[in-house]
Amino acid sequence: MITTIAIVTFAVLVLVTLGWALLRHHGPAPDLQTLDTYTKPVDLAAFRNLIDPSEEDYLRGHLPAGKFRSIQRQRMRAALEYVQRTAYNAALLMRVGEAARQSENAEIASAASALVNDALRLRMNAGLAILFLYARIALPGSRISVGRVTDVYESLTAGLLRLTRLQDPAAAPRISAAV
C-alpha cells in the first residue's frame, strides 16, 4: 500500500512539474541579437566532471566516508544548477526556434525545427535528471546517471550555431560564447 501511494505521488509530482514547465512563458521570444542577454552560461567540461563516475570513484576511494558524502552532495548541488541552466536555455531556444520556423527559407525553417526538437528533448531529459540529482543529494552513494543531459545540450548548442550562421553569421561567435 505504501509503495502504491509513493508511486502515485511521484507520478502526480512529475505531471505537475512537466505541466508547469510547458505552460511557463517569460514574455516574447528573444531574437538572435538579444539572446546572449537572456541565456545562462553552462561550462560543459565542469558539468561533465561533476557527473563523471570515475571522478566519483576516485573521491570515494581517497576520502573518509563522511567527507565523501558531504563533498558528493555539494557536487550534486552544483550539477543540479547546471541542469537547471540547460533546461532554462532550452526553453529560450525552443522559443527562438519556434519563431524561426516561420521563415520562408526552407533551410532556416529546417534548422529551426531541429533546434526545437533538440530543445524539447533536452527539457524532458533535464526534468528527469533533476529528479535523479535530488535522489543523489539525498543518497550520495547512489549510482544514478545524468550524463545524457550534456550530450543533448551539446547537440542543442550545435543546432543553435547552425541556425545562427544561417540567419546572422556575424552573431555566431557571440551566441556561441553565451550558451
**Count of domain modules:** 1
Biggest pleated sheet = none
Structural class: mainly alpha
Principal-axes geometry comes out as globular
Kindly state the percentage of residues in helix.
over 70%
- Number of extended strands: 0
Q: What is the typical, i.e. mean, pLDDT?
A: 86
What fraction of the residues are assigned to beta strands by DSSP?
A: under 5%
Radius of gyration: 18 Å
Oligomeric state as shown? single chain
List the uncertain runs.
none
User: What series of H and E elements makes up the topology?
Assistant: HHHHHHHH
Span from first to last CA? Answer: 46 Å
Written overview of the protein:
By secondary structure, the chain is mostly helical. The chain has one domain. The chain is built from eight helices and no strands. It has helices spanning 2-23, 35-38, 44-51, 53-62, 65-100, 106-138, 148-167, 172-178. Helix 5 packs antiparallel against helix 6. The longest helix has 36 residues, at 65-100. The radius of gyration is 18 Å and the shape is globular. The mean pLDDT is 86.
Task: Briefly characterize the structure.
This protein is an all-alpha fold and 179 residues long.
Descriptive keywords:
179 residues, mainly alpha, 8 helices, 78% helix, 0% strand
Break the fold down into its secondary structure elements and pairings.
Layout (H helix, E strand, L loop, with lengths): L1 H22 L11 H4 L5 H8 L1 H10 L2 H36 L5 H33 L9 H20 L4 H7 L1
